[in-house]
Design goal:
This protein is of the alpha+beta class. The chain has a domain of 67 residues. The chain has four helices and eight strands, in the order αβββββαβαββα. It has an eight-stranded mixed sheet with strand order 5-4-3-2-1-8-6-7. The radius of gyration is 27 Å and the shape is elongated.
Length: 184
C-alpha cells in the first residue's frame, strides 16, 4: 500500500506538469492546423453543384440531380446524404404554419459594415471562368474582344457562338486571415 502511495505521488508531482505541457502543445498544434487549413468554395454551373471544403476536416456538397436537390456532408469519420425538400411552409388553407407574432421584435445589433468588408477582402478568387452566348450573333461579335482582355491568371471570359453558358468559380480563404480581419 505504501509503495502505491509513493508511486502515485511521484507520478503526480514529477510527471503531472509534463503531461499538462504535452496536452497543451498538442492542443496548440491542433488549433494551428484548424486555423491554417484552407476553406474553398467551388461552383460550376455546367455540373449543377456547389462544394464547400475545409481541407482535411469536412466537405459539404449541394448537388442538383434527378430533379432533386441533395446535400452531401463528409467529415473525418462521417458521411451523410440528405434530400432537400421544397419550401413547404404553407398549410393547405394557404395560411402560414407559424402565425405572425403580435409582440414587437427587439432590434439586434448587426455586424458593422466595415468589419464585414475587411473579412470579405481576405477571400481570394482562384478561378473565375465565364462562358457567354447571348443568342444574338451580332452582340456576341461585339462582345468578343473581351476574350482578349488581359485578366489575371485563372480568370477568363469566353464569348462563344455555340449556345454554351456557364460560370466556374473557386474562392478560397484561410480561417486565420478572416479571424485576424474580424478582430483587428
Amino acid at each position: 500500500m505504501m509503495t502505491q502511495i509513493i508511486l502515485h505521488k511521484i507520478l503526480i508531482d514529477y510527471f503531472g506538469p509534463m503531461v499538462i505541457a504535452v496536452l497543451l502543445i498538442l492542443l496548440s498544434i491542433l488549433l494551428c492546423w484548424l486555423l491554417s487549413s484552407p476553406i474553398t468554395l467551388e461552383m460550376d454551373t455546367r455540373l449543377p453543384e456547389a462544394q464547400l471544403r475545409w481541407k482535411g476536416i469536412c466537405a459539404v456538397r449541394l448537388v442538383y440531380e434527378k430533379e432533386q436537390m441533395w446535400l452531401y456532408l463528409r467529415t473525418l469519420f462521417i458521411k451523410k446524404k440528405w434530400q432537400l425538400k421544397g419550401r413547404g411552409s404553407k398549410r393547405a388553407g394557404g395560411k402560414n404554419i407559424r402565425g405572425a407574432s403580435t409582440r414587437r421584435k427587439k432590434r439586434r445589433r448587426g455586424i458593422p459594415f466595415s468589419k464585414m468588408i475587411r473579412v470579405l477582402q481576405t477571400f481570394r478568387v482562384d478561378v473565375l471562368s465565364i462562358a457567354l452566348d447571348t443568342g444574338d450573333p451580332v452582340l456576341n461579335a461585339q462582345l468578343y474582344p473581351l476574350t482578349f482582355f488581359p485578366f489575371r491568371a485563372g480568370r477568363t471570359i469566353r464569348i462563344n457562338f455555340e449556345d454554351c453558358n456557364y460560370v466556374l468559380l473557386r474562392i478560397s480563404n484561410r480561417p486565420w486571415r478572416a479571424l485576424a480581419a474580424w478582430l483587428f
